[in-house]
Amino acid sequence: MRLLVNPKWINILCLIILMILSLPPRLWQLSAIPPVIVDEPANLRDINKMIDTPNYYPANFQWDFNQATLVHYPAIAVVKIFSSLDQLLALRLTSVALSLLALIPFFLIIQRYTNTYTAFLSTLLFSFSYYYLQFSRVGWTNIHAITLGLYLLWSLLKTLDKQSKRWLIVAGILAGLTLYTYRGAHIYLLASFVLIAAKILSEHKKRLKMVVFYAIFGVVSLIISTPWLITVFNNWQQYNLRLSVISVSATPLPYHGVYSPGSVWQYQISTVFKSWFLMQSISGDNIENKRYLPLGYPAVNHVVKLLFWAGLIMAVLNFPSYWYWLFILGSGLILGQVLTVDPPNGSRALSILPIIYLLSALPLYALYKRIANKPYLVLAMAIMVSLVAFQDYQFYQYWMSWIEV
User: Fold this and answer.
1) Rounded distance between C-alpha atoms, residue 222 and residue 241, angstroms
2) Distance between terminal CA atoms of the chain?
3) What tens digit of pLDDT does each residue of 10-43 get?
4) Peptide bond into 344 cis (omega under 30)
5) Cis peptide before 375 (omega within 30 of 0)
6) Which residues form a coiled coil (predicted)?
């Protein structure tokens, strides 16, 4: 009986149930749906080149010069372990596994601010999000960065709780590895350093001691990322090829029907606000956007939209407790949407999706506290959330019937 009431065992049980529930939607016709997307053959070419080349350097550029070939190692492991599998399926199974692993830190982070019940329901909603499901099922490497980023944030929060060097070293390793991955998730790195700086500044009497302690994080992350940093600095122009293409400051005019730089920035800010705060459906007029978000529909379902609005207000009113998440949301939208062409881009905004669902958990928790002493209402809440999650999966299936890649 002691095991049943131990919070660690309850967490393990919740996570096992979440994994079991989340697996079938990810495996549904995985080898055929969605249709093969352009990045997948390119990733497979890199993977086969690495397999055929002994001692292939993991800090080389991948095919688009945007990430390191280190991101292909999980897929290589799956290809080698399950050698009889079709390689495309193996590539997609890697995304499935990483998307499931990301649910663990997501659940544990939300639990810090709410409770186990709310964390379970919120993680279920996040897992079944049609936006998240798309990145969970295709052989893109974006999901690597989100998974590493969530583990980075969780381990850093553990460090702040316990002032533990062990957790700080883990966070430093994860930060170093995250740097090798998709740049859209580098916002987690920036947020980590901002959180550490805020912690140091808050310790007036032992600030020097805190600087020395948290320097471990910077040193470890620098050691881990040094091979990649050398590659980047030696090939700076190649590394920034993608950035030069997507930067809104370099886009030719006219742009989305506007003809002056001031109008471009006005368009960017208003479009991002409508897309990611009001959650309106805007296409962005870019062929890439059709792969990431269902055109004609918002990024999240209407229930999550309402929860997000309520959670955003709650977070702003309780700014000292939630400023960190608001910082990730705001800076992620500025760097990944306002400053880049054709928002809303679902790839560059993927790093803020966990924050949207984390904020959505706050009103869910407030509702739970009001009905906690009424078991039938608690059960009804779980049923309603489950139905919303299942509806997202049904909508994902519908989206896959007309997706354009």
Assistant:
1) 24
2) 52
3) 999 999 999 999 999 999 999 999 999 989 999 9
4) yes
5) no
6) none
